[in-house]
UniProtKB/TrEMBL annotation:
Residues that, per the record, bind substrate: 19, 131, 350
Reactions that this protein is recorded to catalyse: 6-carboxyhexanoyl-[ACP] + L-alanine + H(+) = (8S)-8-amino-7-oxononanoate + holo-[ACP] + CO2
Protein name from the UniProt record: 8-amino-7-oxononanoate synthase
Modified sites of kind N6-(pyridoxal phosphate)lysine: 236
Obligatory cofactor(s): pyridoxal 5'-phosphate
Gene3D superfamilies tied to this protein: Aspartate Aminotransferase, domain 1, Type I PLP-dependent aspartate aminotransferase-like (Major domain)
Family, similarity comment: Belongs to the class-II pyridoxal-phosphate-dependent aminotransferase family. BioF subfamily.
Alphabetical list of PANTHER family matching this protein: 8-AMINO-7-OXONONANOATE SYNTHASE, CLASS II AMINOTRANSFERASE/8-AMINO-7-OXONONANOATE SYNTHASE
Transferase found in the keyword field: yes
Length: 390
């Protein structure tokens, strides 16, 4: 049978699920130019405002002069250069773990870690709202794959009772579409009683969470005995690109030997590692970024609640407004855009059916005045949407 791609695309459009890529014509920041218009954006993951930071840019430039622009080969051949090595050592020190291993993307770090640790006969247990890369990794591993109820240690425990072989519990640290924190103390305790390991993907926690930006494990005061496999991504609060896995000497050596997405890919440009070394330094030392961000989060929640918007249980820069219906979420996003604000609607299958939402994300780069503009526009657009005359 021939491929009927047109029918698939038509069906997606009819379901209000069609995706389009806005064209960004400026650097990342609160004020962007998108598809020919200046907009105030509340949708990037650049939580600390480092993606366009002059010192990070300068570190990248200097790195390119020193090391060239390409990684040149995989890490195991001749692509593992001094900046990569220094960044790994700095990330190990930052996370308080013996070693860290650099990956090209978070997607690959997750695929690499899960598939290197598990095989047929083992068990992988995942939160049902985990990031797609973690779910894909679980399926690809060949281990028995089961999803527990969101953030529910009791639901995890019943699955742990039936687990066979090596068992890995896998969770987002901060859930990327909801903004809530994994209940790691409870999940780790459940895993520990059964001798299972815990892997946490803290893509959205590193930077905003913890006293020094060390993410959810720092927030809860947990260590390597609780979370054996800790993943961070560098494309969010770090403002650059790539990812890392931190853990024991043996864990990292296992990944070097067996993680296919680590082995069979070109190393990231060394100059990028130079840039990330600088952003790590800023992330750790410039506490005012976290403090300002937390003040914005608090103010947003007060303002949004006061106008009756349905927020989620989130104390993080991810502040979704739950709408439910995909077409309504799209409409609200469109109304905001007409007023110069960019806030993305997130629809199934990225989120469960019937839970379309506007995913507001806040950044330390936003000013308090910009946040007030968002609240004012939301109040106006929400009224239009509620009264159906939108
Ligand atoms: C963004 C994200 C990833 C993917 O990281 P990339 O470096 O963008 O590939 C993985 N996990 C979570 C939870 C994420 O939010």
């Amino acid at each position: 049978m021939p491929f009927d791609l047109a029918a698939r695309l038509t069906e997606r459009r009819a379901a209000s699920l069609y995706r389009q890529r806005p064209l960004l014509e400026s650097p990342q920041g609160p004020l962007v130019r998108v598809d020919g218009r200046e907009l105030l954006a509340f949708c990037s993951n650049d939580y600390l405002g480092l993606a366009n930071h002059p010192q990070v840019i300068e570190a990248w430039r200097a790195g390119a002069v020193c090391w060239g622009v390409g990684g040149g080969a995989s890490h195991l051949v001749i692509g593992h250069s001094t900046p990569h090595h220094e960044l790994e050592e700095a990330l190990a020190e930052f996370t308080g773990r013996p070693r860290a291993l650099l990956f090209s993307t978070g997607y690959m770090a997750n695929l690499g870690a899960v598939t290197a640790l598990l095989e047929q006969g083992d068990t992988v247990l995942e939160d049902r709202l985990n990031h797609a890369s973690l779910l894909d990794a679980g399926l690809l591993s060949g281990a028995r794959f089961s999803r527990y109820l969101h953030n529910d240690a009791a639901s995890l425990s019943t699955r742990l009772d039936k687990a066979t072989g090596n068992t890995l519990v896998v969770s987002d640290g901060v859930f990327s579409m909801d903004g809530d924190l994994a209940d790691l103390p409870a999940l780790c305790a459940a895993a520990k009683t059964k001798g299972a390991w815990v892997m946490v993907d803290d893509a959205h926690g590193f930077g905003p969470l913890g006293a020094t930006g060390g993410g959810i494990v720092e927030h809860f005061g947990l260590g390597q005995d609780d979370v054996q496999v800790l993943v961070g991504t560098l494309g969010k609060a770090f403002g650059t690109a790539g990812a890392f896995v931190a853990g024991s000497e043996e864990l990292i050596e296992t990944l070097v030997q067996f993680a296919r997405p680590y082995i069979y890919t070109t190393s990231q440009p060394p100059a990028l590692a130079c840039a990330t070394l600088k952003s790590l330094e800023l992330l750790r030392s410039e506490h005012w970024r976290r403090e300002h961000l937390n003040a914005l989060i608090k103010r947003f929640r007060e303002g949004a609640r006061a106008m009756g918007l349905e927020l989620m249980d989130s104390a993080t820069p991810i502040q979704p407004i739950l709408i439910g219906d995909s077409a309504r979420a799209m409409r609200l996003s469109q109304l905001l855009r007409e007023r110069g604000l960019l806030v993305t609607a997130i629809r199934p299958p990225t989120v469960p059916a019937g839970s379309a939402r506007l995913r507001v994300t806040l950044s330390a780069a936003h000013s308090s005045a910009q946040l007030e503009l968002l609240l004012e526009a939301l109040a106006e657009c929400w009224t239009l949407l509620e009264h159906g005359d939108a």
